[in-house]
Amino acid sequence: MRITEFEGILERTYNNVQRKHTLQLAAGLSYYFVMSLFPLLIVFAASVSYLPVPNLFDAALAFAGRFMPHDSVGLVKAVLRQVITPERGKFLSFGILGAIWAASGGFSSLMAALNVSYDVPENRPFWKTRPLAIGLTFLIGILLVIALALMLVGPHFGAWLAAKVALGRVFVIAWPYLRWSIALAFTVLAMELIYFLAPNVHQRFKHTLPGAAIAVLGWIVLSWALGIYFQHFAKLNKTYGTLAAAIALMVWLYWTAFVILLGGEINAELLERDGRRPSLKQAPSSKQDKSGPRLEGAA
């Protein structure tokens, strides 16, 4: 790709972000994310309690503190202590379905927002989109849990694994770097699956890679920058008092939603540049306008 082409893509992406009110969409999406976050964590906590790894959930939350604002992690722990009970079997048998349904609401809203990024209407019926959102909840959750597990096992796991399957000393030396590479690859794969399955467009899986890579890297950089900002510059406690942790969490989720939508905008722009305008997954009915989507404020 030539520099002029790259600059043109960035300029058109910026214009689309302004035209489609992506920042406002991200703000609305952050509301649905915070409504889905705690049910998702409840399901995760109830599930990992059956794994033979002591304090796995606490270790996962501690690691999440590297990306989330510190005060927000404390808020999450406080809420989870109030809602998670030691009666694991009772929770998994009666409360799991409600928690999964609530957790999938974030993905359902993300599907609608990505349709705006790809400039397509949502004409799929509810009985298709909601099961898809639930499936994405499980699929993305599993991939992120694998990525998180690779980050948590530590460098000594490589020596243990090499001894079990005779991988050799080279693997042991490379493992501390390899585990981060694999974890990052699983995270990018999870983002690719969101772009491939969530919007109402047909596209090849490989075409979702640029936006997924940019979204993941952008999210890491923004999380790091927000951590520095909240720790050294922001004075949320003086302004919001006891709500400071909740405000920090909402800001973090807002920028998380924005980078996801930005990745979708980049993927859509790359498809347009290469003349690969994707078709709708759900064919429009005779009552719908087949000439293409129309967005409020679009030229």
Verbal overview:
With about 300 residues, the chain is an all-alpha fold. The chain has one domain. Helices cover about 75% and strands about 0% of the residues. The chain contains 11 helices and no strands. The protein is globular and about 55 Å long.
Which oligomeric state applies?
single chain
Coarse morphology: globular
Parts with pLDDT < 50 across at least 5 consecutive residues = 86-90, 289-299
| Count of DSSP H/I helices | 11
**Element order: H for helix, E for strand:** HHHHHHHHHHH
What is the helix content? over 70%
Global mean pLDDT: 80
Approximately how much beta-strand content do the residues carry? under 5%
Radius of gyration: 21 Å
Brief sketch in words of this structure:
This protein has 299 residues and is mainly alpha-helical. The protein has helices at residues 3-19, 22-48, 56-64, 70-83, 88-117, 126-152, 156-165, 169-197, 209-232, 236-240, 244-273.
How is this fold's topology laid out?
Blueprint: H1 3-19, H2 22-48, H3 56-64, H4 70-83, H5 88-117, H6 126-152, H7 156-165, H8 169-197, H9 209-232, H10 236-240, H11 244-273
Based on the model shown, name its key terms.
single chain; 299 residues; mainly alpha; 74% helix; 0% strand; globular
